Amino acid sequence: MKAVSSRDNPRLKRLRGLSQSAKDRRQQGLTVLDGPHLLCSALDAGVGLAEVWVSESGIARPEIESLLRRCPDTVETFSLPDPLFSQASPVDSPSGVLAVFAPVQPLRTLDNGNWLILDRVQDPGNLGTLLRTAAAAGIAHALLTPGCAQAWSPRVLRAGMGAHFMLPIHEQVDAMAALNAFGGEVIATGLMPSASSLYEIDLAHDVAWLFGAEGEGLSAPLFARADRIVTIPMIPGCESLNVGAAAAVCLFEQYRQQRAGGSR
Amino acid sequence: MKAVSSRDNPRLKRLRGLSQSAKDRRQQGLTVLDGPHLLCSALDAGVGLAEVWVSESGIARPEIESLLRRCPDTVETFSLPDPLFSQASPVDSPSGVLAVFAPVQPLRTLDNGNWLILDRVQDPGNLGTLLRTAAAAGIAHALLTPGCAQAWSPRVLRAGMGAHFMLPIHEQVDAMAALNAFGGEVIATGLMPSASSLYEIDLAHDVAWLFGAEGEGLSAPLFARADRIVTIPMIPGCESLNVGAAAAVCLFEQYRQQRAGGSR
Question: If you count residue pairs, one on A and one on B, with CB atoms under 8 Å apart, how many are there?
Fold first, then answer.
């Protein structure tokens, strides 16, 4: 492990840039994860890490020490005094360990299974929560339109809680074009009178779920592309849920139906 | 309408304090909502507003103009140049209208129906989303333990999208004591082998749902107080959902069951 103590160290400068700047991450094709939980998920998934950085107080924690021992020899490791670590961390409450790595490219092309298509979801917390829900509900592919936040930014990674390493994530996708190759039913949520209740439809087949940004909703062409509009029944006077909550209700209703129809 | 143009105006100073400081809000028993959507919800609910502040560009918007006309004469209205409005706004992208009001005290004491008990949920976005979901699923009472974020802070109000005006919210609650008066089933989520699948239990009766902070979970005494632990079935290898997503799945599964058992 190399000890870095100068704030002008070029590797440390790069780390700070990757932590703080979407542009730096895009240009270098690298990102930063924060915390032992995510590092453990990345190691479990066999993600190729470039660098691991630990704070001096972080090294002393057995949880972090054992993660360091799990890193392959190809991973460069660095230690930092706590104040420098805090400055380089992408989060307000630094957790003692960071890792630099290249976002995982989906190994599988878009094939069968359920898809989650997210249109212009810009809030990192919402986006990470949606990916976490999708992984837990067995979504086969997440597709993100160009207006979405960077899926691999530190904040989205943190909210995703490891989902990034379980779920193929396709960014900058032309969703209309991708749907041409989709063989299942395309479903959006909405309130029009013609909408079906989520609980009155059969979901035991492949579905591409469409969810849009808070407030704005789906782009008009995508909404028009839906084969079916569903409504989540709720108390009169309430018109909608947070996009993460709505997706959780829909995806887990489908998981419930598909599980009930299967080996359960 | 009074035009305020000095940044040292005492009423404007108070507005800034209420927007930015949890301590100011607590000491004065007042809070600030932001945006036409929330203002409309507050007016619909008959909330007593103390002040409404508009930016000069906000006054020109028909949506805001018509909301101003709906305000009773007892509401003091102020206009502000856009730069002063931005400084006084609790959010990064000011929407043109703010209102000062006292948090709505629950009119009903804790009576029958479903309860949502939130233990030390500190993230304002998560807390607001949870309240929004609870209102939509017909929860009768939301109970917040002392470790939760301020329910009526501007950020929680914004994420709640009007839920605050539909749902009795009880803050600083001793949940253990409150549960002594609860006649239904107390349910927490968890992963232990003895847990029931959410989809295999009958939820057509009053339930007090317990959800804890991200990461830490419920306090040990509250968890031990649960009559039943339920698990949301999910893909093996995924251990949990975001607390807002998990609550949405549980509360809407109950809503589905209670609706199916009723007049549907």
Answer: 95
